[in-house]
Specification:
heterodimer; A: about 500 residues; alpha/beta; 21 helices; 16 strands; globular; B: about 290 residues; mainly alpha; about 70% helix
């Protein structure tokens, strides 16, 4: 009898083990974290520089307005964790992702109906409230799969006190002027620049200087219709590298910039150890526990001086600066366009400037790097609370929701209210400066457009091949340092090596 | 002093080697200790002090940071104590189930002859020799199908026995004399009683050592918890998320305070049981 019992028990244990092995062969959606009902919106939230307070405030406002919905959220600090679940249709229970740009739209719900919607009581649709240039970045064959909920502009942030003490009254209009200011700062025994490891945020600045030189259309075309010849051509990218050769030499850059983390260098920058640092709108919220940023401001992006190669009537640095001053006067409302209009052309300091040159430099001057398109909200197609998730997004982009966002974070996205503007009177000077720059920028440049060529998405191609240009220019050790020509040679060498063997192979 | 015990009986060369080796070990030990002391001191400084003078002593002593950790260290609504409870549950129970199942499995395979008794040994040898990559997606789907995502029952994944410890236990039991079992049989013990009262007590030191080393690894592990337990975060997951958050908030002081607090349980256990880990098995209880 005992033997029989033993055999039965052994058989039962073995059966359980075998069933465990076959458990993975179950039907789709069986077991695991059950998907919520259609009135429970589950959100995966990537928590980085923006923090979570604004998000919780939005949820509170949404649930108060739409009591039939309940919002649950899970936070993560890494993009990889979000991407690991997205696309796993039978296991993923999230209805809305608030993460980073994801080019894999195969499981994304189009948000066209969210954009076309007009929130009750408002006079404009959500689409009309968004900046059109930003929406163009998100347009993929007429559909919009992702919308931004954060990010900011990037530029040269400068220490106003150090500038004043060094006798610098005017902000640089061109890169040559920026380099001269670095000399003035060095003479005043101040380190002009700092950045953090792996070129800091210069990767954004490189894109703007390149687009300024070659023109926005040519820059966009590079991303949409790439070719090996275009990638190897000595275009605006080479001019950008030459700027860095002069700007980011070892004498101008704070030691430690090539190796330290971004918060460490930002702490040193706010402490006054360097006069300028390329940084973003998030500097204020990121460093609020360290030091106030009231003494800091971001300048308009200096225009790359080599742009005169592309102009016909403006050929010298002096003429270029004068033209930029005139353009700024019109943009800032100090003068009207009629002040400079001279028939079909323009007259600046008695010099005739063609309309084409005026427009070319104006576009360049009013370009700011931005990363809004890199911070994205999207809804998976397999969500069982799609309507609820879309209502949540509509609330986020309503005047009420956007006011909560802006009032909590003191930042703006390329978006406006249907009536009036965000009240920035209680924002600190740095935050107000950001709002002014966003308001006066014509182009918020970002290379994360949805319709760029697959060579740059699945192929893995990158115009500068992720080569650390700035690190190489200011390396303390001579053997790690490179000139502009050496950097360009390295980049083109890598392009020749990778174009067919890696990038094209990846997309075939 | 113990270090220099019986020195008078040793040859000069032996004394010299002893001194040099002791000095080297002292330096290594001090380097480990320095890291712990530095982390503790970083936890009482301000963020700016750590950035500007990383190796300096505190000018201000902000012990409040160690209290603030409890309120700031929060992941998905779970605070420090919640994460501590999760860590204890998942590390202790998982490892306990793992060790008990592995030891029992190894005992059966090494002490009893049945068809296939040698097969697990061969399978495990192959498993640890061949690198198996890319199984993450399949594993996630399996765990999801078993209903163990975000579940306290995730500990059941510790059951199985197919791991490297099987080899240790197998070797141990093979060298353990069957005379203990025979002695127990004479007293009328059945197979279960032989295992529980005669064999398992002999295996306590190795069980303890492997339990502790597994527990330390499990306590510090965050990859599994990050993927499978997003709403039941453990301490390492909390520190991992906290690390990234504190970087964006520029609070290195709070980060290091949290690291020190999280390392305390492992330090206490290791200090208390380090001898158990290094003790050899002693053979006794046999006559004739």
């Amino acid at each position: 009898m005992k033997r029989v019992v033993k055999k039965v028990v052994s058989l039962a244990i073995v059966s359980i083990l075998v069933m465990g092995c076959l458990a993975g062969c179950g039907a789709k959606g069986s077991g695991g974290k059950k998907k919520g009902d259609s009135k429970t919106i589950e959100i995966a939230f990537l928590q980085q520089g923006l923090g979570i307070e604004w998000f919780e405030a939005i949820i509170k406002g949404f649930e108060a307005k739409y009591p039939e919905y309940t919002v649950q959220y899970t936070t993560t600090s890494t993009t990889a964790t979000l991407k690991a679940t997205y696309g796993l249709e039978d296991t993923d229970s999230y209805d809305l992702y608030l993460g980073q740009k994801n080019y894999d739209t195969s499981h994304m719900e189009p948000l066209n109906d969210v954009l076309e919607a007009t929130v009750e009581g408002e006079s404009k649709s959500i689409k009309e409230k968004f900046n059109q240039a930003y929406l163009d970045l998100e347009n993929k064959d007429g559909n919009y799969y992702m919308l931004t909920y954060g990010g900011g502009i990037i530029g040269f942030v400068y220490n106003k006190k150090i500038f004043k003490e060094a006798g610098i009254d005017e902000l640089p209009r061109t890169t040559d002027e920026l380099i001269m200011i670095c000399d003035d700062l060095s003479d005043a025994n101040v380190k002009p620049l700092c950045h953090f490891n792996s070129d800091g945020y210069y990767t954004y600045m490189n894109q703007v200087w390149w687009a300024q030189y070659d023109g926005l259309d040519a820059w966009t075309d590079f991303y949409k219709n790439p070719s090996k010849d275009k990638m190897l051509a000595k275009d605006g990218r080479y001019e950008v590298i030459k700027v860095h050769e002069s700007l980011n030499n070892p004498d101008n850059v704070l030691i430690g910039s090539n190796s330290e983390a971004h918060v460490t260098m930002q702490t040193k920058f706010l402490d006054g150890q360097s006069a300028m640092m390329v940084n973003g709108s998030w500097l204020s919220s990121e460093m609020k526990n360290v030091k106030s940023v009231d003494n800091f401001a971001m300048m308009k992006t200096p225009v790359i001086s080599a742009i005169t190669d592309k102009l016909t009537t403006v050929k010298t640095e002096r003429e270029l600066r004068a033209l930029i001053t005139a353009i700024d006067n019109v943009t800032d409302g100090k003068e009207t366009i009629d002040t400079y209009k001279d028939g079909e052309n323009y007259k600046v300091n008695e010099k005739s400037v063609s309309a084409a040159d005026w427009e070319y430099v104006k576009t360049a001057r009013n370009m700011m790097p931005a990363n809004y398109a890199g911070i994205s909200a999207y809804i998976p197609t397999y969500s069982n609370a799609k309507e609820g998730a879309k209502e949540f997004l509509k609330y986020l982009y309503s005047d009420e929701g956007y006011k909560i966002f802006a009032d909590t974070l003191h930042i703006e996205i390329p978006f406006s209210l249907s009536e009036g503007t965000i009240d920035t009177s209680k924002w600190n000077p740095f935050e107000q400066n950001q709002a002014e720059l966003i308001a006066t920028s014509e182009t918020m440049l970002c290379n994360l457009m949805m319709d760029k060529h697959n060579l740059f998405i699945d192929g893995g191609a990158e115009p500068f091949v992720n080569h650390l240009i700035v690190n190489g220019m200011c390396a303390q050790s001579q053997k790690d340092r490179h000139s502009a020509d050496e950097a360009w040679e390295k980049i083109t060498g890598l392009i020749k090596d990778r174009y067919d063997n890696m990038w094209m192979a990846n997309i075939q | 002093m113990k270090l220099f015990k019986n020195f008078h009986r040793k040859a000069p060369m032996e004394i010299a080697v002893h001194c040099i080796v002791s000095a080297i070990f002292m330096v290594v030990a001090l380097s480990y200790l320095y890291i712990l002391v530095w982390a503790f001191l970083a936890g009482v400084r301000t963020h700016s002090e750590i950035v500007f003078d990383p190796l300096g002593l505190p000018t201000t002593w902000n012990f409040r940071n160690y209290i603030d950790v409890f309120s700031l260290l929060e992941v998905n609504g779970k605070n420090f104590l919640d994460m501590l409870v999760n860590s204890v549950w998942f590390s202790v129970v998982t490892v306990l189930l793992q060790q008990v199942s592995t030891m029992s499995f190894a005992y059966c395979c090494s002490k009893y002859k049945f068809p296939g008794s040698k097969l697990p040994y061969a399978i495990i040898l192959i498993m640890i020799t061949l690198p198996i990559y890319g199984s993450g997606g399949a594993t996630y789907k399996l765990v999801h199908s078993l209903g163990l995502i975000d579940s306290y029952a995730y500990v059941l994944l510790g059951l199985g026995g197919f791991n490297m410890h099987f080899l240790y236990y197998t070797a141990y039991f093979k060298n353990l004399s069957w005379s203990y079992a025979e002695a127990a049989m004479i007293d009328g013990a059945n197979a279960w009683q032989i295992y529980l009262y005669a064999m398992f007590p002999q295996a306590k030191p190795i069980f303890g050592a492997l339990f502790l080393t597994s527990w330390v690894g499990n306590w510090n592990s965050y990859e599994g918890a990050l993927v499978y337990l997003p709403n039941l975060p453990t301490m390492p997951v909390g520190i991992y998320q906290f690390n990234i958050e504190m970087i964006y908030r520029a609070r290195f002081d709070i980060l290091f305070a949290a690291c020190v607090l999280v390392s305390i349980p492992a330090l206490i256990l290791f200090t208390a049981f380090n001898k158990t880990i290094t003790t050899n098995v002693s053979v006794g209880g046999l006559k004739g």
